[in-house]
Write a structure and sequence with these properties.
Layout (H helix, E strand, L loop, with lengths): L8 H6 L26 E5 L5 H9 L4 E5 L3 H14 L4 E4 L6 H4 L5 E7 L17 H10 E11 L2 H13 L3 E6 L14 H8 L5 E6 L15
Parallel strand pairs: 1-2, 1-4, 2-3, 4-5
Antiparallel strand pairs: 5-7, 6-7
The protein binds S-adenosylmethionine.
Length: about 220
């Protein structure tokens, strides 16, 4: 997702410090302080323009949500949505996924969502995929014991790569669908990309996993890349 430069974005983000966390490292281990209610924290990484996180926050007032997005113009669009909808259980952070162990303490997060993350199709960029085992190790660190990771994509190869990574990390699959929109048993809130891709007739791949039997990634995982 690339947006044209939005001149008012930086100013808009700075003007809303009650929603946009301007010094996130100061809250490491204390993110509950950013919310009105002390309740489980769900984190979306690469949240885009915020459709999913805002709809989730409306559907689940019993949860707190944090959205991480690296592009300033894109997170600004998410901020506009949070303000428009008046949801009080969403906080936004303008940073990269690579930072999450600097931002969150061990076990601070209950659930991580990766929705339509960039597939980085070229092998030499495999390390940038947000399901690469380097990222899985950092997710494991910040997630609570038995915390969950949910992942959706339209890209079959990326999904297969990710399943191999999850397997190498000894994760446990809790839910899986190779055609999410045909699978009526799985509750689903759509993202911007998901709506676009499913209108084009593309299948949506989905899985939800936990790290309860996590072990260090084994070396054979490297064969998959
Ligand atoms: C393809 S878009 C998907 C957006 C949204 N999740 C959806 O499903 O509609 C991927 C988003 O992830 C963001 N992103 C990519 N790599 C990231 C990273 N390393 N850290 C934070 N955000 C990232 C991009 O800026 C982009 O907005």
């Amino acid at each position: 997702m690339r947006l044209r430069h939005i001149p008012e974005a930086e100013e808009g983000l700075a003007a809303n410090p009650h929603i946009v966390v301007t010094h996130p490292k100061n809250y490491k281990g204390k993110f509950q302080k950013r919310f009105k209610k002390n309740q489980p924290i769900h984190l979306e990484i690469g949240m885009g323009k915020g459709q999913f996180i805002v709809e989730m926050a409306k559907a689940h007032p019993e949860l707190n949500f944090i959205g991480v997005e690296m592009q300033t113009g894109v997170i600004y669009r998410a901020l506009e949505k949070v303000l428009e909808e008046g949801v009080e259980n969403v906080q936004l952070i303008n940073t990269k996924a690579q930072m999450i162990t600097d931002l969150f303490a061990e076990g601070e997060i209950d659930h991580i969502y990766l929705n339509f993350s960039d597939p980085w199709s070229k092998k030499r960029y495999a390390v940038r995929r947000l399901t690469h085992f380097n990222f899985l190790e950092s997710y494991h660190q910040v997630l609570k014991d038995k915390g969950l990771l949910s992942f959706k994509t339209d890209n079959r190869k990326f999904f297969e790569f990710s399943i191999q990574m999850f397997n190498a990390a000894h994760m446990t699959i809790r839910e899986l669908s190779l055609n999410l929109h045909q699978d009526l048993e799985i509750k689903n809130i759509q993202t911007e990309y998901e709506e676009k891709f499913s209108k084009q007739g593309k299948r949506i791949y989905y899985t939800q996993l936990s790290f309860d039997f996590f072990q260090a990634v084994d070396e054979t995982a490297l064969d998959y890349i």
